[in-house]
Specification:
By secondary structure, the protein is of the alpha/beta class. It is built from seven helices and 14 strands. It has helices at about 5-10, 50-55, 80-85, 160-170, 195-200, 210-215, 225-235, and strands at about 15-20, 25-30, 35-40, 60-65, 90, 100-105, 110, 115-120, 130-135, 140, 145, 150, 180, 190-195. The protein starts with a helix and ends in a 16-residue tail after the last helix. Bound molecules: ligand L3IBWBLD.
Length: about 250
């Protein structure tokens, strides 16, 4: 039976930070405890059962399965969540990926009584969006701004110059106490703030020239799942739903 969260948490947003320990991805669940509508940001296919169970346990109704961008390191769970819940999948228009709803810079979307704003923050990919939740002083930065780091720019239309401009113009201009929630952290840190990243980010506190040099010399290994993740994410993750799940793809 679902929990009666509305009685305990009136006027509070329901917020969960979920983790996939294979890809080091954070998935975020945001729910309005009054209307029960919720959204999920950056779900991972392998964790969909866990996430959807939690949505049901909390008595929530999933409105949107959102992606900050077309990921290269894991298959999105948005297509599978759509099949399970009837929610709409969401990604940026610029991503080149299929979804029910396409967002652009400054688009506002809502769940329950709450509004979030899409901020175009390209650079890791052309279609990267950050989602700004002004009411709760949160920003979900995807792979654009990581904690003391940032998304790599060596594939999928990546550009260090574009990423630098995105972070400085769209994220570092938000109120200083805005909490930064990235799509990944590889060191176990879960959140940061605009003020902290402005002061301590070892890449983005540098000049543009120094930043470009750093990014062009990261020499990171390619993500292990890139060859299956990118084609799957182009179709919303729908083509690689596990065989043991009895669902039909519409
Ligand atoms: N080892 C991981 C991939 C790690 C990686 O490349 N992460 C990306 C985000 S996912 S495309 C990134 O931008 N990293 C920036 C950095 O500085 O680490 C795997 O095999 O999946």
């Amino acid at each position: 039976m679902a929990l009666k969260t509305g009685t305990m948490l009136k006027n509070r947003i329901l917020f969960r930070q979920l983790f996939d320990n294979a890809s080091f991805t954070y998935t975020y669940l945001l729910g309005d405890v009054n209307s029960k509508e919720c959204i999920i940001i950056d779900p991972v296919l392998e964790q969909v059962k866990r996430d959807f169970k939690l949505v049901n346990e909390l008595g929530l109704k999933l409105k949107f399965a959102m992606n900050t961008h077309m990921h290269a390191d894991h298959i999105t769970g948005s297509g599978y969540l759509k099949q399970l819940s009837g929610c709409k999948s969401v990604i940026s228009k610029m991503s080149g990926a299929q979804a029910d709803i396409y967002l652009e810079d400054e688009d506002i979307f809502s769940f329950g009584n709450y509004n979030l704003k899409a901020l175009a923050t390209p650079g890791h990919t052309n279609g990267c969006l950050s989602y700004y939740f002004e009411d709760q002083q949160m920003v979900f930065t995807g792979d654009t701004l990581l904690i003391r780091g940032c998304g790599r720019t060596d594939f999928q239309e990546g550009s260090p110059e574009v990423l630098y401009k995105s972070v400085h113009s769209k994220i570092f201009t938000l109120p200083l106490d805005t909490i930064v929630y990235p799509a990944h952290d590889y060191k176990g840190v879960m959140s940061s703030s605009v003020a902290e990243e402005l002061k301590f980010n070892p890449r983005l506190t540098k000049s543009l020239k120094e930043f470009v040099d750093i990014m062009n010399n990261l020499n990171l290994d390619y993500p292990k799942q890139i060859d299956k993740a990118v084609p799957a994410n182009r179709v919303c993750g729908l083509h690689d739903i596990p065989d043991d799940i009895d669902i039909k793809i519409k």
